[in-house]
Design goal:
Blueprint lengths: L2 H8 L8 H38 L7 H32 L6 H21 L8 H29 L9 H28 L9 H24 L11 H23 L4 H25 L17 H29 L6 H32 L6 H18 L2 H6 L4 H29 L10 H8 L10 H5 L10
Length: about 475
């Protein structure tokens, strides 16, 4: 892909929003990103690691509420809030307009955070009073935050000129729809808990919520943003657009089948629909990896300013390798049930963590370490934290999947490896997330630009020795806060 087409896709040269509007929208995104990282540092990845260690090493009982709280903080607190924070910058900047409906944008964080805390309280069930009502109120607040998020994106899109870029729009729209569906499922869960006067009974919709949020919401957004950024940024060959379109369509069909199957009452009909959805999703992953040329290397690299650092490019490839692992395990689990066999639940657990821990988490942290510094106008200084953290997440995933050996080979010591793997993965999340947090805590120069040394290091992070930066190659310097 030529350098000119790459610049167009990344929209580095579109008109900057007015400084006051850009500063106001960045303050909103900055708070969302910081809270999302602290969610995973505390009751997200770290709490999940403690739960895993306790379960697999038989250190004591772990109430189901502990796992539910961990999942809520990871899905809503980390994945959704981080996505919203980045989207509030990427979408308006790529269209060359200010963020619209800033009142609704400012309300997104308090709505999501309030809902998350209420949901955490409600998930403790009979241990605390008033948990069914708290579960319903939390779900309603989270849904309101997602509606505000969707409304802001729609309002921003409508203010953009007719020439606004449409690359990846289908993935972004589909992902937003599935996040809305996930919020509706949380409200349905709360209504069921209030009607039956038992918050624990609302957990029946947990599987459907996870599928809608992670499989439908996060992964559809990832596919859309991958196309919007462009494979050349990650050192890949030009993508096959028809295959990527087919992959997204298959992904929506598989997600719909899995979510609907998980919502239906327990029985063979719902289980068959869920398993069929898993097989379709597995096919979608294979088509996407093929169409995106994930395992290829571009013959002509993008200019240094557009090229992601080596650690990020490596992370993108390995994340989609983990997605292929998810596809293999999901297809195995679904096919086994459809043919009348009874597969181990560890197979599905391994598939879920291959997607959530092996694909979504490193993509968020890896791409975040590349995009957030450019949005903030502050270079990423803790690069070793990022690189080490991303490696530890990968090692943690490998250890996490060792639980499959305990099932297939009847080798219990594999659970010891799996049990301690959460500590490695959580440490990796803290390191990689801490690198991004350092950017969010830093303050740009008073005039809104980086100093010359920092800007040169940031632009040259992915540059080979002797290769000119894009500013040196094209003449006038690019803005200190390029559009992504």
């Amino acid at each position: 892909m030529s350098s000119s087409s790459t610049a167009g896709r990344l929209n580095l040269r579109v008109v900057q929003p007015p400084p006051d509007a850009a500063a106001a929208s960045w303050a909103i995104s900055r708070r969302l990103l910081k809270v999302s990282l602290w969610c995973t540092f505390t009751l997200g990845a770290s709490f999940g690691a403690a739960n895993l260690l306790t379960i697999h090493l038989a250190l004591g009982p772990v109430p189901p509420a502990h796992n539910w709280v961990h999942a809520s903080f990871q899905v809503v607190g980390f994945v959704l809030m981080f996505l919203v924070g980045v989207a509030y910058q990427v979408i308006p900047r790529s269209c060359g307009v200010p963020l619209a409906a800033r009142g609704a944008a400012r309300a997104t964080l308090p709505l999501l955070l309030t809902g998350l805390l209420l949901r955490m309280y409600g998930q403790f069930g009979p241990l605390l009073p008033g948990t069914p009502a708290a579960l319903l109120a939390g779900g309603a607040s989270i849904l309101a935050g997602i509606v505000a998020f969707a409304g802001v994106l729609l309002a921003t899109w409508r203010t953009a000129p007719a020439s606004k870029p449409r690359i990846g729009l289908a993935g972004v729209a589909a992902g937003t729809f599935w996040w809305l569906a996930a919020g509706v499922l949380l409200v349905v869960e709360g209504l069921r808990a209030v009607a039956l006067r038992d918050a624990d009974l609302g957990a029946r919709y947990n599987e459907a919520f996870y599928a809608a949020a992670l499989v439908g919401g996060a992964m559809s957004w990832i596919q859309g943003m991958f196309r919007r950024i462009g494979g050349a940024t990650f050192g890949l060959r030009p993508s096959d657009a028809p295959l990527l379109t087919l992959a997204l369509a298959l992904w929506q069909i598989g997600t719909a089948a899995a979510v609907l199957g998980a919502c239906l009452p327990p029985g063979p009909g719902g289980q068959r629909l869920f398993d069929t959805g898993l097989i379709v999703l597995a096919a979608a992953v294979a088509v996407f990896v093929r169409g995106a040329r994930i395992l290829s290397t571009a013959a002509e690299e993008a200019p240094a300013f557009h090229l992601a650092p080596a650690a990020v490019r490596r992370t993108v490839r390995l994340a989609f390798v983990a997605a292929l692992l998810f596809a293999a395990l999901a297809a195995l689990y679904g096919a086994s049930e459809l043919t009348g066999r009874v597969p181990s639940r560890l197979i599905w657990d391994g598939a879920r963590h291959a997607l959530a821990l092996g694909c979504i988490t490193p993509l968020i942290l890896g791409l975040g370490s590349f995009i957030v510094p450019r949005l903030a106008g502050t270079p990423l200084r803790r690069r070793r934290w990022r690189s080490t953290g991303l490696v530890l997440i990968g090692v943690g995933l490998a250890g996490r999947e060792c639980e499959l050996l305990a099932s297939w080979l009847a080798w219990p010591p594999a659970l010891w490896i799996s049990g301690t793997s959460g500590l490695l993965a959580a440490t990796g999340v803290v390191l990689a997330g801490g690198a991004i947090l350092g950017v969010l805590r830093a303050r740009p120069e008073p005039d809104g630009r980086q100093n010359a040394g920092d800007g040169q290091r940031q632009r040259g992070e992915g540059r080979h020795a002797g290769q000119k930066t894009s500013a040196e190659a094209s003449g006038p310097a690019l803005p200190a806060e390029p559009q992504v």
